[in-house]
Design goal:
It contains 6 helices and 17 strands. By secondary structure, the chain is α+β, with helices and mostly antiparallel strands.
C-alpha cells in the first residue's frame, strides 16, 4: 500500500521490503530521503522524500547444491548498474509473506509427468508461510486462472487432484496471463512457479512478448522443468512418445521450450531446475521455496539518470567463495 502525505512532498510505505518497488517493475525505483537507510531497516515503515531514486534488488544466494545461504550482510555484496559500481545504501533480509502464482502444465505432453508435478505442488504448499496466498493457473489448450488468489491450500490441492492431462499447450499465453493476474496480489513479494516440460504449441503471444512483460513485472519466476523427453531433454525413467500428441512441426521447436523457461528465471532473478524423477522434483520444490523465502534486498541510488523507458543492466556479486547469486539482470527506467 502506498500513501502520499498531505503536502505531497513524500511517499510513505507501510509493510515489507518489496513495497518499495515501483509498480510494474521487479527492481523498484522510489523516492529516498537525504539520510541513508541503516542495514536491515528496509522493512520498517518510513517516509522518503522525492529528491532522488532508490533501486531495490531482491537477491538469492545458494551453495553449489542449491541450498539457500543465510546470514550475509551488506559487506558481502557488490552491485553494478551499467558496469558502474554503486554504493549500497540499504540492506534487508526477512521471511515476508508471498503471493505465488502456480502455473501447472496439464496439457497432453505432461501426461507421464503430471503425477510428479502434482506432488511438487503439494510439497510447495506444505512449506508455505501461513500468510502466503496462491493463484492456480493451468496450462492446456486455453489458459485457466481459476477463482483468483486464496489462502485455502486444502482447496487448491483438491482442485489439482481433480485435474487430468489433455489438450494442446498454450504455455506462453498462460504465463502471460499469470503475470497479469499478479497485479492483483495482496502481498508485496510476488513470484510465479512454473511446472512444465517447456513445450508450447498453441500460444498466441510470442516468446519475445512474454520476456518483455516479465522484465517489466514485479514478479520473480521459478521454473521446474520436467525432462520427460517431450521437449528435447533426457528421457528419464518414463518413456514418452511425442508422436501421440504433437504435430510434426512442433518437434522442431521442442528444445526451445526449456531454454525459454531457463531464460525467464535467469532474467527475473528466480531459479530453474531440471528434474527427471519424482524425488528430484520434490527436492526442487523445497529449494525453490527456500530461495523464495530467504532473500536479501539490496538498495542503491543510481549514479546516472537516464530517460524514461531506458534499460539499465544490473550485476550483483557476492564477496564470498563458491556461491551462486541470483538477481534480476536489469530494469526499465520508470
Amino acid at each position: 500500500m502506498t500513501y502520499i502525505t498531505k503536502g505531497g512532498s513524500a511517499l510513505q510505505f507501510i509493510g515489507a521490503v518489496l513495497l518499495l518497488f515501483f509498480s510494474g517493475i521487479g527492481v523498484g525505483a522510489q523516492s529516498l530521503s537525504g539520510q541513508s537507510l541503516n542495514a536491515r531497516s528496509v522493512a520498517s515503515a518510513a517516509v522518503f522524500r522525492t529528491s532522488s531514486q532508490i533501486v531495490l534488488v531482491p537477491v538469492t544466494v545458494t551453495d553449489r547444491y542449491g541450498k539457500s545461504i543465510e546470514g550475509l550482510g551488506a559487506k558481502d555484496f557488490t552491485i553494478q548498474e551499467d558496469r558502474v559500481s554503486q554504493p549500497i545504501v540499504s540492506f534487508g533480509a526477512e521471511d515476508a509473506p508471498c503471493s505465488v502464482g502456480l502455473v501447472l502444465d496439464v496439457s497432453g505432453s505432461m501426461r507421464n509427468s503430471l503425477t510428479g508435478a502434482k506432488g511438487v505442488a503439494r510439497s510447495f504448499f506444505q512449506a508455505a508461510n501461513p500468510q502466503d496466498e496462491f493463484l492456480l493457473l493451468t496450462v492446456s489448450t486455453r489458459p485457466d486462472s481459476g477463482d483468483g488468489f486464496t489462502t485455502d491450500v486444502g482447496g487448491l490441492e483438491r482442485s489439482i487432484d481433480r485435474t487430468g492431462p489433455g489438450g494442446m499447450t498454450a504455455l506462453i499465453d498462460t504465463v502471460y496471463l499469470g503475470l497479469s493476474r499478479m497485479r492483483k496480489a495482496n502481498q508485496p513479494r510476488r513470484a510465479l512457479l512454473i511446472l512444465s516440460d517447456g513445450i508450447d504449441n498453441h500460444s498466441r503471444y510470442s516468446k519475445s512478448e512474454l520476456l518483455r512483460v516479465a522484465l517489466e513485472a514485479d514478479v520473480q519466476i521459478y521454473t521446474i522443468i520436467f525432462d520427460n523427453g517431450a521437449a528435447g531433454g533426457s528421457t528419464g525413467t518414463i518413456p514418452y512418445r511425442p508422436a501421440l500428441i504433437l504435430k510434426p512441426g512442433d518437434r522442431v521447436q521442442q528444445p526451445e521450450g526449456p531454454r525459454m523457461l531457463e531464460e525467464l528465471s535467469d532474467k527475473t532473478g528466480g531459479l530453474h531446475f531440471h528434474v527427471r524423477s519424482d524425488a528430484e522434483a520434490k527436492e526442487a520444490a523445497s529449494k525453490a521455496g527456500q530461495a523464495l523465502r530467504n532473500q536479501y534486498v539490496i538498495g542503491y541510488q543510481p549514479s546516472m539518470a537516464g530517460p524514461t523507458g531506458q534499460w539499465h543492466r544490473i550485476h550483483v556479486k557476492a564477496n564470498v567463495p563458491k556461491v551462486n547469486v541470483y538477481a534480476r539482470n536489469g530494469y526499465y527506467a520508470p
